[in-house]
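Archive entry. Fields below.
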Amino acid sequence: MSNFFTEFPEMPKATYRAMKKAIDAGYKDFAREWGDTIDAIFNPLLKLLVFFEDLLIATPWPIFMIVLMALTYWGSRSIKLCVSTFLAFVFIGYFQMWEETMSTIAIILTSVIMAVVIGLPTGIAMSRSDRTEKIVTPILDVMQTMPPFVYLIPIVMLMGIGKIPGLISVVIYAIPPLIRLTNLGIREVDQEALEAADAFGATKRQKLFEVQLPLALPTIFAGINQTIMMALAMVIIASMIGVKGLGQPVLQSIYNQYFTKGVLYGLAIVIVAIVFDRVSQSYGKRIQKHRSGKLI
Amino acid sequence: MPEAKIKIKNLYKIFGKNPTSAMEHVKNGVGKDELLEKHNHVLGLKDINLDIEEKSIQVVMGLSGSGKSTLIRHINRLIEPTDGSVTIDGAEVLKMNEEELRNFRRSKTAMVFQRFALLPHKTVLQNTIFGLHIQNINEEEAKKKALRWIERVGLSGYEDKYPQHLSGGMQQRVGLARALTNDGDILLMDEAFSALDPLIRKDMQDILLELQDELHKTVVFITHDLDEALKIGDRIAILKDGIMDQEGIPAEILLNPQTKYVKDFVEDVNRARVIKAKHIMDKLNGQDISKAMPVNQDEFIDRFIDKVISEKPEDLVIQDRDKNNVGFLSTKKLSEILKR
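PREDICTED_STRUCTURE:
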C-alpha cells in the first residue's frame, strides 16, 4: 500500500516493451510498404529543390549579387540595406562559405514556397470555420512544441536520410506561424468592409480575394517572415539528417572542435537570417502603407 | 395609391441562441428588458410594419439601440429576420436563394455606411467602381460611370488617392459615389452622415437632396438626429426599443406626437421651419375670406410669418399653385401652433 504513494502506478514493464515493439514494428512495416510510394510523391519537390540549388550554385557570384541587390531594393526601397547586404555577402564569399550558403538559401526558398502553398489555404480554411480552427490549433501547438529531434525519427524511418526528409522537417517546424497569422489576419478584417462587400453583392470568393486577403496581407506577411526565420533555424538541425548547407560545417565543427570554422559558419547563418528578415520586414511594412491605417 | 416600393410586414428580429422559442414570449407581450433578463435574448425589432413609397425619402429615426440599423439591414437582408416579410417590387426578399439575393443586391440596392466602410487598399476610383467590378462589368464602361459620380460628389482630382488620405467628409462622398455608381433604385443610408462634422454634414445633406431631385431614388435614411430627419425625410418613422412608435410626414409627427418618447424628441424643434401652410389649414367651410391674406399651401410658416406680423390680417386663405383657394387658417390657430 505504501508503494502506491511513493511510486507511480506504472504500466508493467513487459506490457510497455510489447507496446513499443508493436508500434515500432507496425511503423517499420508501413515504412517498408509505402516508403517508395512516398518518395515518389515527393519527387517533384526534390526536383524543385535541386533545381534551385544548382541554379544558385551555378550562377556566377557577380550576377547573384546584382539580383540580390535588385531584390533587396525592390523589397525595402533602402540603399542602406542594399549596401549592408552586399558587404554581408562579401564576407560570406571571402571566407569560402559561398556554396554552402547557396545550398541553404535554396532549401529555405523551397521550404518557404511549400509552407505558403500549404499554409495559406489552411489558414484561410481555419478563418472560415470555428470548427476547423478548433481542430487545427492543437495540431499547430504540437508542431511548435514537439522537439524537432523527435519528429525527425519517424521521417528518417520513412524516407531515410537526405534532402526531402530534411525539407519536410523544416516545413513542419516553420509552417505554424504562417497558418496562425493567416487565420488571425483574416479574422481581424474590419467587419464593416465585409458587410459593404456583402451589400454590393460580392460572392464568397470575391470577398476573399477583394477584401479579406488584401486587408490581411500585412499580417500574413508577418507570418511569412516568421516562417523564413524558423526555417533558417531548422535548416541547421536538419543538417543532422543530411541536408547540405551551412548546418553541416557547424555540425562537423562541434564533433571536431573546430572553433574558428564553427564561428564563421555560425556568423554566415546569422547574416542570411538578418538579411532575409530585414528585407521581408521592410517589404511587409511597405505593403501596409495604405492598408493598415484605420479609417476615421 | 400605388403599391409601395418596399413593404415591410410583421417583421421580428430576436438576437440570441434560440430566437424561435423567444419569439413565443415576445408574441405574448414580453418586453425588451424582461426578455433579456429572463430569457437571455435581445429583442431587435418587434412587429414592424412599414410601406415605403417609390421615389420618396423614408427616414427611420431612433436613439442608439432602438433597432434602426437592424431594420435597414433587413431590407437587403444583411440580417436574417426571425419572422415577417420584406417585399420589394412585389418580390419577397426573404425567400430569395443565395444567388437571387446576390443579384438583387447588385441590381436593386446600394448602401452607404456610417463609418464609410471603404476598402483602404483601393483608390477612390477603385472603391467607387467596386460594385460594378464584382459584377464583372466591362472595366472601361464601369470607369466612365464611376468618374461621372466622382465628379458629381465633388471629388474630381482625387481618383487615385487612397481613402486614408481623405477627410471624413470626403470619404463619405466616396461612399456615396460608390452607392450611386451601382445604380440601384433603392439607396440605403445607415447613419450615413452621423460621423461627420456639423458643417460637412449639412453639405452632405444638401448634396443628397440635390441628387434626389434629379435621380428620384427610393431612399431609406437612418439617423438619430431629428433636425436631419426633418430636413431630409418625406416621411419619418420613429423607433424605440425595436418598436415603431409613430410613422408619418414630418409635420404630422411634430403636431401630433403619439407617445411621450416622440413628444420628448420633437419638443425643441422650430416648428415654423418644418410645417407648411397646408399641414395646418382647415377646410374651406364658408368662412369669410374677403379680408384674408393669401398664402401658398407649400410655404413653410417661417416664410410667411413676417408678412403676417406686418400686415396683421385676421385670417389666411391658403391657395394652391394656381391660386385656387384650398384652405383656411386663422391667425389665432397659427399662433397657437407656434406657441405649443
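CURATOR_NOTE: The interface with chain A takes residues 76, 78, 102-106, 109-111, 113, 115-121, 130-131, 133-135, 162-164, 167-168, 171, 178, 182, 188, 195 of chain B (CB under 8 Å).
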